[in-house]
Design brief:
Elements: H1 7-55, H2 58-64, E1 65-72, E2 78-80, H3 81-89, E3 93-100, E4 105-107, E5 110-121, E6 124-140, E7 143-153
Helix pairs in contact: 1-2
Protein name: DUF4440 domain-containing protein
Pfam families: DUF4440
Domain DUF4440: 42-106
Length: 154
């Protein structure tokens, strides 16, 4: 009977670890690819929202916002999707510029960005106001939609 030498168990453990890492590599690459694709979709949704707000594109807003959408505003508190869109249609909320100042921070289905915002909001003219905007997304019917927007003055 052969005796097990000291290095045999160590070699077996190292071999097992290297095989498990090699076997999981394709799964890790798939996860990384999916995460990068999801982050790209989130950034595109954020850009589409800003464009729709500046251009008063109500059909685009209707499509981007979930039915149970809420916005937490600085002056008006919490507004539903319908209330916010009515305020945009009546020019109570009129974005003229939204300028991103830093790279958006994405965490899961949430994006947060520091921006300079210009426009007229509930009768108050605003020029280059610093705001922190956090957007939470939800997937409905295989499509990402905006569930919630939180706006804070900085």
């Amino acid at each position: 009977m052969k005796r097990i030498k000291f290095w045999h168990p160590i070699a077996a453990v190292l071999l097992g670890l290297s095989l498990s890492v090699a076997a999981s590599y394709p799964a890790i690459k798939i996860i990384q690819t999916e995460r990068a694709q999801q982050q790209s979709e989130i950034i595109e949704l954020d850009l589409a929202l800003r464009k729709a707000l500046i251009e008063h594109d109500i059909p685009a807003l209707q499509n981007l916002l979930a039915e149970d959408f809420e916005i937490y505003t600085v002056n008006q508190g919490v507004l539903s999707k319908g209330e916010w869109i009515r305020n945009i249609q009546r020019n109570m909320v009129n974005y003229t510029q939204v300028k991103e100042l830093e790279t958006p921070q994405i965490q899961g289905n949430q994006i947060s960005v520091l921006s300079e915002v210009s426009g007229e909001f509930w009768g108050i003219e605003t020029q280059d106001k610093l705001v922190q905007t956090t957007i939470r997304l939800v997937e409905r019917k295989d499509k990402l939609q905006i569930k919630c927007v939180v706006i804070k003055l900085v």
